[in-house]
From TrEMBL:
PANTHER family, per database record: GDSL ESTERASE/LIPASE EXL3, GDSL-LIKE LIPASE_ACYLHYDROLASE FAMILY PROTEIN, EXPRESSED
Keywords, sorted A to Z: Membrane, Transmembrane, Transmembrane helix
Similarity-based family: Belongs to the 'GDSL' lipolytic enzyme family.
Organism: Linum tenue
Name of the protein: GDSL esterase/lipase EXL3
């Protein structure tokens, strides 16, 4: 898969995800005050939002990384304030921006690597996400983007800045009471597994999703060890409905690729089990599995149900592929 296809996939995943994440994920990540968040979205429900993952929630970290996986140029950002590209893999905001707004924190979640950030920017939350990343370290390595381990190291650096600027007590509050939003894994299956042979030579899809689940467990254990206690994790979307997957695996009618979608569902079942296990092991924390697969499948196959404008935008994207 070439860079253009990779970035196009990232953009389309973001298009699907904005609606779903802002209506499901946000209300759950606000765990103890769901009703307040729904009734008074501007009331601050957490001190900060801290985001990890891939292009769906990368607000521009890749601008500051030596990688070809970038979107800091037109036409990206054409619906953003000032119609300027920001490094977000979409035309406007990414889902974590909407989440921060609903939490009553701020309009936009900045990229942690943005050198212009102030202490106040840091105090209300940042994103460490990097477009092209995955649970599998090979996914990030192949594109020279930030792996989840890299993102955790940046998180530790961030916490040191908070401690130095705001004190230990404030840092402890931010660590334990912030909403943690994680969205990652699509690139592992769509790109690392199905689009390149490296992993397929050694793993069938069941073994590979087992590998992903082990990496996921290690990552969430590390977040817990550092102090995270309110963690919302998005499932994989129906990856087989991405244009590239429809082209490569959808047959002459370019239907959604069953093999890619089945792989996503297989991993989702294992991710859900990992989070259930972590919840039992750490009863003082909330690890919440957020199923976007089924909601997105409904949107993809029944777009008119969600409004004429949505239908008109979604269908041409599929036809262009």
């Amino acid at each position: 898969m070439d860079t253009h296809q990779l970035i196009s996939n990232m953009m389309l995943r973001n298009f699907y995800s904005v609606m779903v994440i802002t209506t499901t994920c946000v209300s759950v990540v606000v765990f103890p005050v769901i009703s307040n968040a729904a009734g008074a979205p501007k009331k601050k429900s957490a001190p900060a939002i801290l985001v990890f993952g891939d292009s769906i929630v990368d607000p521009g970290n890749n601008n500051h990384v030596a990688t070809i996986v970038k979107c800091d140029f037109p036409p990206y950002g054409r619906d953003f304030v000032g119609a300027k590209p920001t490094g977000r893999f979409c035309n406007g905001k990414v889902p974590s921006d909407f989440a921060a707004n609903i939490l009553g924190l701020k309009e936009l979640v900045p990229a942690y690597l943005d050198p212009t950030l102030t202490l106040q920017d840091l105090a209300t939350g940042v994103s460490f996400a990097s477009g092209g990343s995955g649970y599998d370290p090979l996914t990030a390595r192949g594109k020279s983007v930030l792996s989840l381990s890299d993102q955790v190291e940046l998180f530790k650096e961030y916490l040191n800045k908070i401690r130095q600027g705001m004190g230990e007590e404030a840092a402890a509050t931010i660590i334990s009471q912030s909403a943690y939003l994680i969205c990652v894994g699509s690139d592992d299956i769509a790109n690392t597994y199905f689009s390149t042979p490296t992993r397929r030579l050694h793993y069938d899809i069941n073994a590979y999703t087992d590998l992903m689940a082990r990496y996921a467990s290690t990552f969430y254990e590390e977040l817990y060890r550092i102090g995270a206690r309110r963690i919302g994790v998005l499932s994989l979307p129906p990856i087989g409905c991405l244009p590239s997957q429809r082209t490569s695996g959808g047959g002459p009618n370019r239907s959604c690729s069953n093999s890619s979608n089945q792989a996503a569902q297989l991993f989702n079942s294992k991710l859900s089990a990992v989070l259930d296990s972590l919840s039992k092991t750490h009863p003082d924390a909330l690890f919440v599995y957020l199923d976007v697969y089924n909601r997105l499948t409904s949107i993809i196959h029944n777009p008119i149900r969600y409004g004429k404008q949505f239908h008109q935008v979604l269908i041409p994207k599929y036809q262009r592929g």
